[in-house]
Amino acid sequence: MNENEILRIENLTKKYYNKTALVDVNLSVEKGKIYGLLGPNGSGKTTLMKVIAQLHKQSSGQVLINGNPLSYESKASISYMPTENFLYDSFKVKHAVKFYADMYKDFREDYAMNILEEIKVDPEFRIAKLSSGLNGKLKVALALSRNTDLYMLDEPLNGVDVLSRDTIMDLITKSYDETKTFIISTHLVSEIEKILDSVIFLKDGRVELFGDAEELRLSKGTSVEGLYKEVYKNV
Ligand SMILES: Nc1ncnc2c1ncn2[C@@H]1O[C@H](COP(=O)(O)OP(=O)(O)OP(=O)(O)O)[C@@H](O)[C@H]1O
């Protein structure tokens, strides 16, 4: 096993009744990198994250975290941010922070409060009153305030304005260090490209392209966005 590998996926297939969402996926994810999980709607990004986060069970194949099969411990060690708005509308921001602190032993409350101050989210705001940009930033801030080694953010840039997208990308890069790994799903490739080390292109549940972003740019003579347009031009 590669000692830098934090996540290994072998021959993973996931079927929902009559729909096969992931087909024979193989991936090796290394520590200290930011991965873009890219693909249009329906390509299988959320399903892949949910299988890794153990919210869905695979139909076949296996997922290894630090060389070990998925377990209660590995589930607890992943900071997964779902795409859905999961925070209670009736909560104030400070209640959401408390909720996270109660749920996760690795949650850093001071770190969260500092981020909220930096991104100008008032702890006294009610969740229901937050703009979609503030809500998006709050979700990311909460996920990043856990102190763990694998973060999976499902569509963190979706439904938020351009300035909030920049703030979210700043938060991710600031919380990065070489012990942490990020998997970020999106179809907003041109915006996220600058912070990605590696890219995973999913198409109809299969890995269409996987590799180091800079090596791909050099070998294919185009940006990740250019490659994306090429791979998905008929989708
Ligand atoms: N619970 C489910 N039951 C049946 N089919 C599902 C279920 N969840 C997802 N699918 C199907 O599996 C395929 C992959 O969906 P998935 O949500 O993983 O893709 P995605 O790339 O995350 O897309 P999106 O950005 O739209 O969420 C789609 O065809 C979707 O309709």
How much of the residues is beta strand, in percent?
Answer: 25-35%
CATH class: Alpha Beta
Summarize the main sheet.
6 strands, mixed
Straight-line N-to-C gap: 36 Å
CATH hierarchy: architecture: 3-Layer(aba) Sandwich
Helicity, as a percent range: 25-40%
Structural class: alpha/beta
Total beta strands: 10
In DSSP terms (H or I, runs of 4 or more residues), the helix count works out at: 9
Bound molecules: adenosine-5'-triphosphate
Spatial strand order of the main sheet: 6-7-8-3-9-10
Protein name: ABC-2 type transport system ATP-binding protein
Pfam family, one: ABC_tran
InterPro entries: AAA+_ATPase, ABC_transporter-like_ATP-bd, ABC_Transporter_VariousFunc, P-loop_NTPase
GO molecular function, one term: ATP hydrolysis activity
